[in-house]
Amino acid sequence: MDLSNYIRTINDFPKPGIVFKDITPLLNSPEATSACLEQLLELLGDRKIDKVVGIESRGFFFATLLAHKLQAGFIPIRKPGKLPHKIIRRSYALEYGDDHIEMHEDAIEKGDLILLHDDVLATGGTAKAACELIEHLGGVIVQCNFLMELEFLNGRDKIAGYDVQSVLKF
Prior knowledge:
Blueprint: E1 8-11, E2 19-22, H1 24-27, H2 30-44, E3 51-55, H3 59-70, E4 73-77, E5 87-94, E6 97-104, E7 113-121, H4 125-136, E8 140-149, E9 164-169
Parallel strand pairs: 3-4, 3-7, 7-8, 8-9
Antiparallel strand pairs: 1-2, 5-6
InterPro entries: Ade_phspho_trans, PRTase-like, PRTase_dom, UPRTase/APRTase
Pfam families: Pribosyltran
Pathway: Purine metabolism; AMP biosynthesis via salvage pathway; AMP from adenine: step 1/1
């Protein structure tokens, strides 16, 4: 199944000059969602995972499905002010500004094998900040996987030391 047929391109969102890749048509198709999940799992192979970390918010969709399939825990990385317990925080640059992400400071135990998932790898800033949070808590990143990668933004360069995989490349 060609999953690129389920990605809608929206120009000038969230601001002029940005080309947004919308995954809601994919999520609206049970067949495409299932095929995408299987392709993400194939990228991982048979490696053991203790916890899947998903980045807010679109990363949550497949991160929770991956965690379920892998019989692993799920950990959300969220935008500031959304988590109710003690947190750690990292700043990062977006292709259209700056932001922060947070996770609970007790979410990962030293040595936990981690799969980091997000819907898109763009500039790599969010993924790099997420990797820093995970490693700060002692997690071992087995793979960073993405539904899609915007290759022209060279985000892979920011997380070059990791196994980086993506189902679709634009």
